[in-house]
Design goal:
This protein has one helix and 15 strands, in the order H-E-E-E-E-E-E-E-E-E-E-E-E-E-E-E. It is mainly β.
């Protein structure tokens, strides 16, 4: 859900090919989704619902969709980011409160998403200690969909894979200096591989169509992530990941972030989390810390 880096840096097309090729066996063996007859207006019964999976708190998105006819919300309590000094020495501190991804299951393999950032504060501190700015307000909204090609109902045993595509569009909300004032978007391709009963490998390639900062027109930025998660107990899980963004306009070059966190299940359909990410390159943010909650209805 996070897009602070925008998102192990593998080349995008090999990852896409890996997902499609590894899915061949899964598709051939797939017996049919247990909720295949269900849709937005005929919800999947609770007893047939898939395991509770979230797209947060990692930068890497998940390939799994929400069961049809059900709503899942994934929200930040707070999301804190502090940048490294830019070429002018300015440091920016951003706090996002209650940012929420509303995920609605439409069919067994398709969901629609709406991401809203209702309140964001941005403070900039220049080299001159007396020069500071502060802004607050609603941030950019995002509309997107997720389609699972395979793995929703077959991701159970070691060696199983899952793969999806997520097209998205970022939409300005208001001219307040916080929300972007232009429309852009991109494509995300998340992939998962079940290593053991308790460990999973996840990876993601993302192509962002981004507005140029200083000139008219747009350019493409490339995001790649990879991570490993491990279920410590029935309720407690942990993960580590690395994320890169290249093709960005920073004079310091590409962005590389490393991080990890913990998730804890309070109930079958309720989970809290906490995360820290740190920047490894000059262009990266210095630190990003967030905590939040996910709920399936």
């Amino acid at each position: 859900m996070q897009h602070a880096t925008g998102r192990l840096s593998w080349a995008p097309f090999p990852l896409l090919a890996l997902g499609l090729l590894s899915g061949g066996a899964s598709l051939a063996a797939e017996p049919g989704s247990g909720s295949g007859e269900y849709n937005l207006f005929n919800p999947t019964p609770a007893r047939l619902m898939r395991d509770f999976n979230t797209d947060r708190p990692s930068i890497t998105e998940g390939p799994f969709t929400v069961d049809p006819g059900h709503l899942q919300t994934e929200s930040d309590f707070v999301n804190f980011t502090q940048s490294k000094p830019d070429p002018d020495g300015t440091v920016t501190t951003t706090n996002q409160y209650s940012g929420t991804n509303f995920r609605l299951g439409v069919t067994s393999d398709l969901e629609l998403n709406f991401i809203l950032q209702p309140y964001t504060t941005v403070r900039t501190r220049m080299v001159d200690p007396t020069s500071k700015t502060w802004m607050a307000g609603i941030d950019t909204a995002q509309l997107r969909a997720k389609y699972n090609f395979f793995g929703n109902d077959t991701y159970k045993n070691p060696g199983a894979t899952a793969f999806a595509v997520i097209p998205f569009v970022n939409i300005p909300t208001t001219h307040n200096g916080i929300s972007q004032d232009h429309v852009d978007g991109g494509l995300i391709f998340p992939f998962a591989l079940k290593l053991t009963d308790k460990a999973d490998l996840s990876a993601m390639t993302e192509f962002d169509y981004v507005k140029n900062e200083m000139t008219s027109g747009y350019h493409v930025e490339y995001v790649n992530t990879g991570g490993v998660s491990y279920q410590l107990t029935d309720k407690l899980g942990t993960y580590v990941e690395i994320a890169t963004r290249f093709g960005n306009e920073s004079p310091f070059g590409g962005i590389v972030m490393a991080g990890g966190g913990f998730t804890y299940k309070l109930a079958d359909n309720l989970q809290v989390d906490i995360v820290m990410n740190v920047g490894l390159t000059r262009a990266s943010d210095r630190v990003n810390v967030l905590t939040g909650i996910s709920k399936r209805y």
